[in-house]
Amino acid sequence: MPTLDTDLPPLPALTVETLVQAALAEDWGRTGDITSQNVIPASAKAHAVIRAREAGILAGLDLVDAAFSANQSGLRVTRHKQDGDPLAPGDDVATIEGSARALLAAERVALNYLGHMSGIASKTAHLVGLVAHTKAQICDTRKTTPGLRAVEKYAVRAGGGANHRFGLDDAIMIKDNHIAVAGGITPALKAAQHGAGHMVAIEIEVDTLEQLDEALAAEARIILLDNMAPEQLAEAVKRTNGRAVLEASGRVSEATVVAIAESGVDYISVGAITHSAATLDLGLDIDIS
Description:
The protein is an alpha/beta fold. The chain is built from eleven helices and twelve strands.
């Protein structure tokens, strides 16, 4: 795994608390953890360690803290790693101490978030490492789990990737269907340029080199090259000659990302880093005290 900048801006506390409370409410239902309530004495204390069972990149510790701290549990969480850190099998991630009942009730929510987000960070970091010899940056898309976009995009950053737009409201992205309804690339782009404020980014999608030429003539500043082969991408970079930021998208995988990056594009957007990342295997081992 590549060495990453671990100085990540934290997730907003309200986002973390809202997501964790919703997940705990779903898991605890109407009466809470009836297994622990009936099997574990109320006075029982426990010491637990979250450990990595495979290599990867860590993300999601704020949600772990929030899960174990919920409901005024009194649990103490000590971090041994930080988001963005590389993990090797057997590495200690965090220690949790206190009420055994509270610990067991929050365990699954904490590990669900941590494993999911670390899986995204790990997949992102792998692709980032593959293209590190080029100028291309790996970025995400809006292909995220409903309700989890903020934390999934945070995990992409933890893995060394960049964020594309967060939603429909923070940038104009003119795609093929917009172009079809608007009557073509030039009228769609001109309408966006006329209507958008000066702080709003405008990106337009093209499928062919001829469409690229039209977009450049209409003074596009950010252009998405959709489903182009590496040789087409290289020609697009040549034709653009620095006049616009170029993003490649479509059919991006571990097998194709290097050739795409070596074409000279600026960004490569990859939906798979959020919608298809495998959960990183992290476990919680508990000792009774």
